[in-house]
Design goal:
There is one protein chain. By secondary structure, the chain is mostly beta strands. The protein contains 18 helices and 93 strands. The two termini are 26 Å apart.
Length: 1465
């Protein structure tokens, strides 16, 4: 069985984060990594601010995260670190991968991608020391002065990477120094080829000191002359049960690294640390030293002073003999805690329950720490990594909830009178402050409620991100997302309070524990889908855990809600035009805000004009021409004027009155506008650019369109032209005069340092030493310039003084450009209105990765005879170009996209990016996008078109910009495969297919009283549909998504078809004081009271409930709580034969449970069977029409671990047996049983075959024979493997078993008794295997979409991963498999191996045990790699096709077919 595996939703969890200068040294970015995805974000301010912090320094405004780049690697990132590199102009990133690989990468503007500078591989067998399993993570640690980096190898050795000395010198950017030779292959400069690292070498830790083993953490310390590494290790191990005889087992050693001589003396060591040490945190100067975090204690160590430690709870006092003081008022544990430094003596601690603490080290005059101050500041998301950005922002990355960006501010200092005031006084202080806050926030809350009722868009945003898109702590719809507590840090003299505010959150849907398909409820009529379509489906997944638990609703396609539709046959194209808004002032980038007044419909020889008020009706005297077909209509002059271009004339209209009509000498083919310019293109390849001018000011009727003084050069022939208004400031050389006051831009020679000048009439008093050191807001200019000059030398000064955020708030002046594609394949960019050629690209339609400006290298001919030959070249690629569109999307229109649509089913999307050289200081880079459900570029035609109509249809624009549909801006792509391209403020390009799988002939945005922010589209049958986007979903994610917060851990979800509801099992954990003891013959409950400082264990309390897919909330009164200590192990929707009243099958909800009392007491469980019945709903609550009805609930002989149905019988795994039951008269009657392996946790049935998964012993296949009533073992996999989930693979008459294993592998087993290696059928044969790279925890299958000519015989098996990814495995024919396998092997050499990772190595089956016959079988194609073929340059595509002996069209057809087979949800 041949198949292809592809991931259709990327991983969303974040496991690592680091802040560094990724693109250039002027701008700090946040780099996050999760699974195999690296993303780069920048902080963008929301608005101006005048706030100051406690020291009187300016505070940056609230920020949003904008994603600037995203990279998918062929391997999972294990650890990440950044190295400052001033000489290269930007930082280096160090990435480590399983098991011991290290890559040094850096952003390269020439290719707009990551370039690998050096690779280090330490996986030789002698490194591993004979071990085959390696739990150790290859941590990377970098010396704070960037002299070297180390990586831990297999927990036993260290790899040392020394950096060059000149890495940190300030030689300037090598790109600036030498001119680039812009030939096809860019010659690398000598300077870049030098690797930033010197030769690496390995230290064996046993040779430093034979006791060093079982490394717990490694960290570099501050303030040493040579790089000094701290090792925290446990020479002889122990565990909690042995602390009575062996406790303090941990130790630490400080190792000085002399890299030139390669000698490494141990200069400092301490033993006898508590056995539960977790990690070490280096403390910056002036204190120095390090902080050891243990589960129950905190210890500060420094080489020259005695240690100081505190116990955080009462467990520490009797598990360690290390001298500890009691930390008053604290009862916390630090397991799973994350730490980030907030300055020299303060740390932010995020505990595993999501509480945020601020820890302050209080030192005396000789710099020895004499006490800790722990302060509960807020409750937030369950954190998996933390990082401080620009010293005022804290990023909390999470795998279990949405990642948050917090702003950290210190409030004002207040003097305290006495040193030893009791703690109550401080609490009182915070209380009063909190009360004031509460009063202020009540007003804010009242305001927000008003806002919420008036702005549905805003309210929708709060729902979808559920947790926190809040601007005010009170606005957060989720109460515990960020609770601010009084936060006072007490020292002898002053009290600083910290405030954390949520600025932004990144949506995360992992870990997906269980998933279920359901029907979409809110469908408009006429949208139930055609007969072949089946029902409209959506996915509901269980995400997150604890208070971050949520249900995630996912839809791959956008399903517009239909408001109404008209039959209007014969319409070819349409435009909606905005009416005069009156005097409205608004931002330049919100140019589509008005209401639409007219709708123009093009017919074969005329134009129909509809007025769109409260009703839609045809009008005659609108000022528009109706006698000829319209090729364009739009708005000019800030939406004051409407312009219409027919095939033979141009009209300017205002308020239904025609102001001007221009007759054309040639036939117009298409037109487009960039306010105030209009560009009209003729069928003969000429272009006319007109500008709107008001002749008399304040008289709108005097406006006229006039051609620009310089015309567009007409030869060579123009194919396409598009004007563009740029708001991003990317185009054109950056102005020197927008440098911001008070900003210091680094060492650019010859520029004076601009500093804040004196303010008139201000008396400057410098009254405090702090003011002198840090400068308040009133700093005299001379002092500011001294400070700013100092700041570059002394990194200790706060960066916020430079007000780095100001540059994002400066308003850009719009510039105007004309993009022209000519017959010879050149793309030319002219500046308007001067018509000066500013940028030229050769052969733009060849699909190159980078479009560079070749103006400098083009020879300009002198005499006209030569010119003829120079321009007469003709490009075959350019002929295929059908359309060009340039749009500015994203934050303030700052992301410029150029879309080129060609007729070989290619839609190329280029993004403009900054580049330090060239005329316009920018380049275009191709975005590797994949079109879900495939893409076809042909025009939608009607069979009964006349010749004129079909000629017009050829010219219909399929790429249409929209400025406000449901609050989003983007591009519609019409045609056979309609798509929505969105790029919102988050900055990631999202492509959503339209679910109406019918083709869409044309589209327009439509904003009207009855249809707010909606859209219009024509389907192929000539029916005009008016629709809006459903508002309950967010479209800024990879799939349309809605996250419904549950505030408890979801475990299982399943859809009940008859009642159209979801059945959901959740659990809530609460601390418990009691447990069960075994007293000889029975169990007895005992209560323990260990005092206030004991961290009590938590107990999960399970419940089952019904969930409504209409309102997305729990249906009232359907929640059923389970007994205490009872855990739900499985939930299935089963169809059982019901003999009591009527024959036939009926759907029931079956639940298996187990009572977890502890290891001394025998486990027992229950089987529960519920029916979901219809009842009379309660008044005013229409959703309460469904209830649970308990059919059966009895205790079994052992724990019930898995359930399913077979032929109408219930089959259950109870303990080590599998039983088959029949449901009779509300009781289960046993039918058959069989003995099994260790612990069965998944069962699946098809017909009479049952597939059983064991936690440790892989899979077995059972068969139930109904006539003999016997259950027998057919075959099993003889290896040991840890199974997560499994599903059947169906290809016509072949059945395979797809199994997901613990290491992130998929394996496909088949039952082939005739094969020799199956021992006569006793053994299941592993036919294929594949490494997904993420643990697959849930699978389901559904019939593949039927293709036009083939019966639906295949099933698609979908899977979801614990990192938030989704994907599919689908069977393919052998012919397709062979062709795509050759393609995959060739693509492996053509694709970019970021960080040196090889796709083939990544996809190879990975197993810790090397058993016999466990060589990888492969056999599953890597769909992610093959999909890159579509976005390769055309020349490469032809090369590859030639190498494997096929045509590009055949490969594209295969890929399109696979896309259509899997076009679900």
């Amino acid at each position: 069985m041949f198949s292809i595996c592809r991931q259709t939703h990327p991983a969303t969890g974040i496991e690592h984060s680091v802040s560094c200068c990724f693109f250039n040294n002027d701008e700090t970015c946040l780099v996050t990594a999760g699974a195999n995805i690296i993303k780069v974000f920048r902080l963008v301010p929301e608005g101006h601010t005048k706030e100051v912090n406690a020291a009187g320094q300016p505070i940056p405004p609230k920020m949003k995260l904008e994603c600037l780049a995203s990279y998918t690697l062929w391997g999972n990132v294990m650890s990440i670190a950044a190295v400052k590199c001033p000489s290269a102009g930007r930082d280096l990133l160090l990435l480590s991968f399983r098991e011991a690989k290290l890559s040094v990468v850096q952003y390269d503007p020439q290719i707009n991608n990551l370039v690998t500078l050096s690779m280090h591989y330490f996986e030789e067998d002698d490194m591993k020391g004979g071990w085959t399993t390696h739990p150790h993570i290859p941590w990377i640690r970098v010396d704070p002065e960037f002299r070297c980096a180390v990586m831990l190898l297999y927990g036993k050795k260290l790899a040392v990477l020394p950096f060059r000395k000149d890495l940190t010198s300030e030689d300037g950017d090598p790109l600036e120094a030498k001119p680039l030779s812009d030939s096809k292959k860019i010659q690398p400069q000598q300077q870049i080829t030098r690797s930033p690292t010197l030769a690496s070498y390995v230290i064996v830790l046993k040779e430093l000191d034979e006791k060093i083993d079982n490394i717990l953490d490694i960290q570099f310390l501050y303030g040493y002359y040579e790089p000094t590494l701290l090792l925290l290790y446990e020479p002889v191990r122990t565990f909690a049960g042995r602390t009575a005889v062996r406790s303090d087992t941990c130790a630490m050693a400080g190792v000085s690294l002399n890299m030139s001589a390669r000698v490494h003396p141990v200069i400092w060591s301490t033993g006898g640390l508590p056995f539960d040490c977790l990690q070490a945190v280096p403390i910056e100067k002036p204190l120095g030293g390090c902080l050891i975090l243990a589960v129950n204690s905190l210890i500060y160590l420094n080489q020259s002073v005695p240690p100081y430690g505190v116990s955080l709870n009462s467990i520490a006092s009797h598990t360690t003999n290390f001298p500890l003081r009691v930390q008053e008022g604290a009862c916390i544990t630090l397991d799973g805690a994350q730490v980030a430094p907030l300055g020299e003596t303060r740390l932010a601690l995020a505990l595993r329950g999501g509480q945020l603490y601020v820890l302050t080290l209080l030192a005396d005059s000789v710099r020895s720490v004499r006490s800790f101050h722990l302060d509960r500041a807020a409750a937030s998301v369950l954190t998996s990594c933390m990082c401080v950005i620009e010293e005022d922002f804290l990023f909390l990355g999470s795998r279990l909830g949405n990642s948050l960006l917090l702003r950290v501010t210190e409030r004002e200092n207040r003097m305290l009178f006495s040193v030893d005031k009791p703690l109550e006084a401080t609490i009182d202080l915070t209380l009063s402050e909190a009360e004031q806050q509460a009063a202020a926030s009540k007003e804010a809350a009242a305001e927000t409620q008003n806002n919420q009722s008036t702005e549905p868009a805003k309210r929708r945003r709060l729902d979808t991100l559920s947790d926190c898109v809040a601007t005010n702590v009170i606005e957060i719809s989720d109460k515990d997302e960020l609770e601010v507590y009084g936060s006072d840090i007490r020292t002898s003299t002053q009290l600083t309070s910290y405030v954390f505010e949520v600025c932004d959150s990144l949506l995360n849907i992992c870990p997906i524990g269980a998933v279920s398909m359901g029907e979409v409820q809110l469908l408009a009529e006429g949208e139930t889908g055609d007969a072949g379509e089946g029902r409209a489906l959506e996915l509901v997944a269980c995400s997150g855990r604890g208070k971050n638990g949520a249900l995630t609703v996912l839809q791959r396609s956008v399903r517009p809600q239909l408001l109404t539709s008209f039959e209007l046959p014969g319409c070819i194209d349409m435009w909606s035009v905005i009416g005069d808004p009156g005097e409205v002032v608004r931002d330049a980038h919100k140019d589509m805000e008005g209401t639409h007044a007219y709708l123009l419909l093009t017919q074969a020889d005329a134009t129909m004009v509809l007025q769109t008020g409260l009703e839609i009706n045809e009008v005659d005297n609108s000022g528009f021409s109706t006698s000829a077909p319209t090729v364009f209509a739009g708005n000019l002059g800030n939406n004051k004027y409407m312009v219409q271009v027919t095939t033979c004339a141009i009209r300017l209209v205002r308020n239904g009155v025609m102001l001007q009509s221009i007759a054309l000498e040639w036939t117009a083919r298409s037109a487009s506008v960039a306010d105030p310019y209009l560009c009209v293109l003729s069928t003969c390849g000429r272009a006319l650019v007109l500008a709107l001018r008001e002749l008399r000011p304040r008289d709108p009727t005097s406006a006229r369109l006039a051609p620009t003084r310089q015309a567009v050069p007409a030869r060579p022939r123009l194919l396409r032209a598009a004007p563009f208004r740029d708001l991003s400031g990317l185009f054109g050389p950056p102005d020197e005069n927008i440098q911001i006051k008070g900003e210091f831009t680094g060492k650019k020679k010859g520029k004076s340092v601009k500093a804040e000048g004196f303010k008139p009439d201000t008396v400057y008093e410098v009254n405090d030493e702090d003011e002198l050191l840090y400068g308040g807001d009133q700093t005299p200019a001379s002092m500011a310039s001294i400070m700013l000059a100092e700041q570059s030398k002394n990194p200790g000064l706060p960066k916020r003084m430079s007000r780095w955020w100001k540059r994002y708030l400066a308003d850009m002046k719009p510039t105007y450009w004309l993009f022209v594609v000519r017959d010879n394949g050149n793309l030319e960019i002219y500046s308007l209105p001067e018509m000066k050629l500013s940028f030229l690209v050769r052969d733009v339609c060849a699909g190159h990765k980078i479009l560079a400006d070749s103006l400098e290298s083009v020879p300009i001919p002198v005499n006209p005879e030569e010119e003829e030959e120079f321009i007469s070249t003709h490009s075959a690629n350019a002929e295929k170009l059908q359309e060009i569109l340039v749009v500015g999307l994203g934050h303030k229109g700052g992301r410029v996209l150029m879309l080129l649509k060609c007729d070989n089913d290619q839609l190329m999307i280029y993004q403009a990016y900054k580049y330090p050289r060239g005329n316009l200081k920018m380049r275009f880079s191709r975005m590797a996008v994949s079109f879900p459900f495939g893409y076809k570029s042909e025009v939608v035609s009607c069979p009964d078109d006349s010749y004129e109509a079909s000629a017009l249809r050829e010219g219909v624009r399929q790429l249409r910009y929209f400025g406000n549909v449901g609050g989003y801006s983007g591009v519609f792509v019409c045609g056979r495969t309609p798509l929505l391209l969105l790029l919102g403020a988050r900055g990631e390009l999202r492509i959503h297919p339209l679910s109406t799988s019918a083709p869409v002939a044309s589209m327009a945005s439509f904003n009207n009283a009855n249809c707010p922010q909606g859209l219009l589209y024509f389907n192929a049958q000539g029916s005009l549909r008016i629709a809006v986007l459903p508002t309950h979903l967010s479209y800024e994610a990879a799939w349309a998504v809605r996250k419904v917060p549950l505030r408890e851990t979801p475990h299982f979800v399943t859809y009940h078809v008859e009642s159209r509801t979801y059945c959901l099992v959740t659990s809530l954990s609460t601390p418990t004081h009691s447990y069960y003891k075994f007293n000889g013959e029975d169990k007895e409950k005992s209560n323990e009271n260990k005092g206030d400082r004991f961290p009590y264990p938590t107990m999960e309390r399970f419940a089952v409930m019904l969930f409504s897919p209409v309102s997305w909330e729990v249906i009232p009164n359907t929640r059923i709580e389970f007994d205490e200590w009872e855990h739900v192990t499985c939930l299935k929707n089963v169809s059982l034969s019901y003999e009591g009243t009527r024959s036939g099958l009926r759907g029931y909800i079956a639940i298996g449970t187990n009572y977890n009392y502890g290891e001394d007491i025998t486990s027992r469980g229950r089987i529960l069977i519920y029916d979901i019945i219809d009842v009379v709903p309660e008044p005013g609550q229409p959703l309460t029409k469904n209830r649970f009805k308990e059919i059966y609930a009895k205790e079994q002989k052992g724990p019930v671990t898995a359930l399913t149905q077979v032929l109408g019988f219930l089959i259950s795994a109870v303990g080590q047996k599998i039983y088959i039951w029949q449901l009779k008269d509300n009781d289960l009657v046993g039918v058959a049983f069989i003995d099994t392996q260790i612990y069965v946790h998944r069962m699946l049935a098809v017909k009479n075959l049952i597939l059983v998964a064991d936690v440790y012993k892989s899979v077995s296949l059972l068969r139930y024979q109904d006539k003999q009533r016997t259950l027998s073992l057919v075959s099993r996999d003889l290896r040991t493997a840890q199974i997560y989930d499994m599903e059947f693979m169906v290809d016509n008459t072949t059945l395979g078993f797809l199994v997901s294993e613990s290491e992130g592998n998929l394996a496909l087993f088949m039952y082939q008794p005739q094969a020799r290696e199956s021992y006569g059928g006793q053994r299941l044969i592993r036919k294929c295997d594949y490494h997904v790279g993420q643990p697959v925890h849930a699978m389901f299958r559904l019939a593949a979409r039927p293709l036009a000519n083939a019966p639906p015989t295949r099933h698609v098996t979908m899977f979801t991963t614990l990192d938030g990814g989704l994907g599919y495995v689908v069977p393919v024919s052998e012919q397709v498999y062979r062709r795509l396998l050759m393609l995959q092997n060739v693509c492996n050499n053509y694709c970019c191996h970021v960080a040196g990772l090889n796709p083939r190595a990544h996809r190879t089956y990975k197993s810790a045990r090397r058993g016999l016959g466990s060589a990888p079988a492969r056999g599953i194609l890597d769909g992610d790699l093959i999909a890159l073929y579509c976005s390769m340059p055309l020349a490469d595509q032809h090369d590859i096709a030639k190498k494997i002996g096929t045509k590009v069209e055949e490969i594209m057809a295969d890929l399109f077919e696979i896309d259509r087979l899997t076009a679900h949800f």
